[in-house]
Write a structure and sequence with these properties.
This protein is an alpha+beta fold. The protein is about 30% helix and about 45% strand. It has a 6-stranded mixed beta sheet with strand order 2-1-6-5-4-3. The termini are far apart.
Length: about 110
């Protein structure tokens, strides 16, 4: 079964923008790794807990997808994220996927 990496990436970003923790949990591999400029967490329970904290701190999220670059089982998404209608973040998320389309890792890089 060929998985559609770009589609899976867009689905994840939409769920993140909606702060849909249940949908995100279904997308994650049990041993998912999340890493950004502040922290690293491993495992489904820890990842969901981390996202829950992030979602509590953000009243609103708006994500503008600038570009998505796909290579084999991964994608790099260049994003503009507006938090609480005031804080603009320029981020590149690199997502890696398992053969069955589950997210194995997300590494986020923050730009200026």
């Amino acid at each position: 079964m060929a998985i559609e990496i770009e589609s899976l990436t867009r689905d994840f970003l939409l769920a993140y923008e909606k702060k849909d923790i249940e949908a995100i949990a279904k997308m994650f591999h049990p041993e998912v790794v999340l890493r950004d400029w502040n922290s690293e967490v491993r495992g489904l329970a820890n990842a969901i807990s981390e996202y829950g904290k992030n979602f509590e701190q953000a009243e609103s999220l708006q994500i503008r997808v600038k570009k998505i670059h796909v290579a084999e089982q991964s994608a790099a998404a260049e994003l503009g994220i507006l938090v609480n209608l005031t804080e603009q973040l320029n981020v590149v998320d690199v997502l890696s996927f398992s053969e069955d389309g589950k997210i194995l890792s997300i590494v986020a890089y923050r730009g200026l």
